[in-house]
Structures are given as C-alpha cells and as structure tokens.
Amino acid sequence: MNSSRNLKIVLSGGGLVGSLLAILLGKKGYSVEVYEKREDIRASHSSAGRSINLALANRGIAPLIRAGVMEEVEKIILPMRGRIIHDVVGGVNFQAYGQKPEEVIYSVSRSDLNRLLMTAAESTGNVTYIFEAEVTEVNLEGRTFHYKSPNGKAQQVEYDLLIGTDGAGSEVRRAVLSQKGSELNSELLDHSYKELLIKSGPDRSFLLDPKALHIWPRGEYMMIALPNPDGSFTATMFLPRTGPVSFEALNNEARVDDFFTEVFPDMKNLVPDLVTSFLKNPLGGLGTVKCYPWSYEGSALLMGDAAHAIVPFHGQGMNCGFEDCAAFDELLEKEPVQTESDLKALLLKFQNLRKPNSDAIADLALDNYIEMRSKVIDPRFLIKKKMEFELENLFPEVFIPRYSRVMFQHTPYKDAKYFGEVQEEILEQLYDDYVKDQKIPVQKAQQLVQAKLQN
Ligand SMILES: Cc1cc2nc3c(=O)[nH]c(=O)nc-3n(C[C@H](O)[C@H](O)[C@H](O)COP(=O)(O)OP(=O)(O)OC[C@H]3O[C@@H](n4cnc5c(N)ncnc54)[C@H](O)[C@@H]3O)c2cc1C
To answer: How many domains does the chain have?
Structure first.
C-alpha cells in the first residue's frame, strides 16, 4: 500500500455527501478524484431531478463547521422555528419545534448547497471532479472500475480506496454486497412524492410564513412546504401510490381539481397552474435501504444514502450522511493508517460506529411519517407535546424530547431512539394525572425519571 497520504482515493458520486467528504479529505492532504454521473450543476440550473430543498439540522451543521464551510452556508439557509399546521378550511396553527431560541432547523436548496460544497472541495487544491462519468463494473478484487462518459467509451480507473457516495441506487453497494454473507434489506414505501412550486408574491415576498415548515396533515397522506430564499416555497405531496386516494387515481384534470378543492383548497391560490403542474411533475419513489457490510477489505467503503437510504420524514438523510463524513474524518485523525490492515480496521470501525445509528434513524424516520400526517392534529399527541416541554423544564439535561434529541442535539441516533421510547412510557404513565389536574404530578414524574432515565 502507498503511504497513507499517497493513497489514491476515489469517490463514486459527487452529491451532498461525496462533496462534503471530498472537502474533508482534500483538507487533510489526500488526493481525491470524484466521478459524478451528472453534468456539472454549477454550469446549469438543474436540481438534478431530486427534492429541491432540504431541512438542515444541528447534526448536519457540525460537519459543515468542521469542513470550514458553514460561514458560506449561512448565506443560503432560512431558519424554521416550528411547524405551521394547515387544516382543511384554511385555518393555521403554529407548533414550536423546541423551547429554546437556538432550537431551529434550516431550509436549504439542495443544488445551491451541492454547488457550494463542490467549489469548496476543488479549492482545497487536492480534489478533482470528473463529470458525466458514470461508475460501472466495479471490480473490488482488482481495485478497478469503469466509467461511462458521454462519448460512450468505457474507461478503466485504478484506485487504492473507493468510497461509494453514489446514493440510494449505489453501484458500489452492489459490488460490496456481492461478498459472501452480505445482507440487503431494501423496502420501497407504498407512498411516493411529487413537488409543486408555491409562487412568491410581489417583490419576492413570501405568501406563507417563511419561518416555519408548513404541513397539511390529512391522516393517510400529507403535503409539506419549505421556504426558498427567492420568496417561493417548494411543496411536496406525499400520497399512496395506488388505492382510492393515490397518485394512480389522480390521473386526470377533473379528479385532480376536485381533490385539491376538497382537501387542499388553499393550494389553488398558491400554486400557478396547479392541476397541470400536478399532472406533469415527476413522481419520486421513497424507501429504506439497510445493508451489511459497508466495506470491502481495506479498499472500499459505503457512505451516505449508498449505505443507508431512509425515508425523508425526519429530515435526516443528508444530516446523517454529513455525520458519516465527520465520523470518518475523526477516525482518520485518531487512527494512524500506515498499513493496509490499519485501513481495513478503520473501515470496519466506521461501519460498526455508524450502522446502529443509521438503522435507528431509518426506523425513526418511518415513525415520523405517521406523526406528521396524522398525529400533529391528534389531541392526545398535542397534550403529550406540552407535557414533554414541561418535563424538560423540570428535568433539564435528563428529559429531552425525542424530536429535540434528533434535530437539535448530537446524541447518537440509537440513543435518541432508546430514550424516546423510555420517555414515551413515562408520558403514558403521567398522562391521566396530567389531564385530570392540568399539571405534571411532580413527585411521580421524579420517581419515573429517576428510575427510567437516570440509571
Ligand atoms: C423528497 C425528499 C426529501 C428529503 N428531505 C430531506 C431533508 O429535509 N433533510 C435531510 O437531511 N435529508 C433529506 N432527504 C434525504 C437526502 O436527499 C439524502 O439523504 C441525501 O441527498 C444523500 O446524499 P448522498 O450524497 O448520499 O446521495 P445523493 O444526494 O443521491 O447523491 C449521489 C450522487 O451520486 C451520483 N451517482 C449516482 N450513481 C452514480 C454512478 N454510478 N456513478 C457516478 N455518480 C453516481 C448522483 O448523480 C448524485 O450526484 C430527502 C430526500 C427526499 C427524496
């Protein structure tokens, strides 16, 4: 093996995770090549056919700070302090995400963030992007792959370390999982999504409150909207793929028009050409991918969606992928890599550290769909939300709402999931007393917190 700084590191995929990782590796002095199948999005207005804006949370921000790009990212993000719930008759209700001023999440454009990260990676002087280069035919044993370029010629590339940051449909994952004993659990959700653009008002003004994430919960399905810096919002409709109320059933102008009139009447004034846009805009699939292993010997690794695609309902896919990058960077800092077996051990350590956490956020993300589309209007859920904040005030540092642990803190996801389950039990045990007396039964709460959370 080359000495560690002379490793030829190749990334397959220059999306959000690949580009952040390229910055961190480039800054450490590694020479990195990034093969990206799309054209250079900095030269186009493409959003790469993927969701247009994303929620960035604290655990995604910490790796951006580590990479030294947060000052630039600050310029393209919009804070969201809570959810605004829209009912069927146009009424709205604000639900704060947290109770401290710093407890906010941010809306960011996927393509603007990707552009910024690519430029920052190149400016390390050690990162080269090869665009319109689709990685195929990964040969792990021989440490080579081919890439297809627009001229159609397949070219072979050799590497020391190949990192698959090529997203949910990863080609590198296909190769890594061809090892004996591999596991792949890939589940397509029976709901899909479609995006709609809510126009800006005069002088790029916002037609909805820009300081919140908007939700139109409708029980079995929902729509959400996140603000964009130009005064518009990107709305995303999540619906079953098939069935009586589904994308499949909404297949002509009259049905779409009736559907919006009945369940999302306010959208008719917000989205220009609503019916045409709905019928024309592409449908996106959603799913969860859990796999094992994430590495091959000391020469290939998966990261980001390639290792763990999750459904978007906790707004954590990118955040989790960014945490992967920081965790890998930290390991590289701590563990000297001199031999191939050092590198193999480091890749395994990374996998063992991150997999339990990505499995946990995958489960939490599925749960959160039900929270967003129906629980946010359930009186029992709303009372428990209030109780959570009161318990947090009574037992700060110990009783921290699950949402806050995931979105505002850096608690490992698996711990956030565990504490969330325990706290749910506590809430259930206090619920009847709280409803009867309209206040937390402090002594009982103290006993429960002590027994279940402080041991
Ligand atoms: C509707 C929706 C909403 C979401 N909302 C949020 C949110 O609010 N917050 C959040 O944190 N996450 C969110 N996510 C998840 C987030 O988009 C992903 O987790 C994130 O994009 C993963 O980044 P990645 O770089 O691993 O993969 P990707 O973003 O998929 O990037 C992979 C890159 O690899 C390239 N590529 C693929 N195959 C090859 C190949 N064979 N050769 C070369 N290049 C290749 C692709 O062109 C792409 O550029 C959302 C996802 C969806 C679908």
So the answer is: 3
Residue 13 Cα: closest atom of ligand 1: 34
Q: Which two tokens stand for residue 66?
A: 């580590």
The pLDDT tens digits of the residues spanning 33-48 come to 999 999 999 997 655 4
In short, whether 58's Cβ falls inside 6 Å of ligand 1 is no
Q: Is there a single domain that holds both residue 269 and residue 246?
A: yes
Q: How does pLDDT run across 356-415, given as a tens digit for each residue? A: 999 999 999 999 998 888 888 899 999 999 999 999 999 999 999 999 999 999 999 999
Same structural domain, 249 and 208: yes
Matching residue, tokens 């929270």: 371
Does 231 share its domain with 339? no
Burial annotation 39-48 (CB, 10 A radius, 16+ → b, else e) = eebeeeeebe
Give me the half-sphere count of Cα atoms (radius 13 Å) on the Cβ side of residue 279.
13
pLDDT, tens digit, for every residue of 183-220? Answer: 999 999 999 999 999 999 999 999 999 999 999 999 99
pLDDT of residue 44: 77
Judge if the beta carbon of residue 346 lies within 6 A of ligand 1: no
Which of 12, 16, 132 best tests ligand 1's pocket when mutated (most atoms within 8 Å of CB)? 16
Domain holding 444, by residue range, is: 378-453
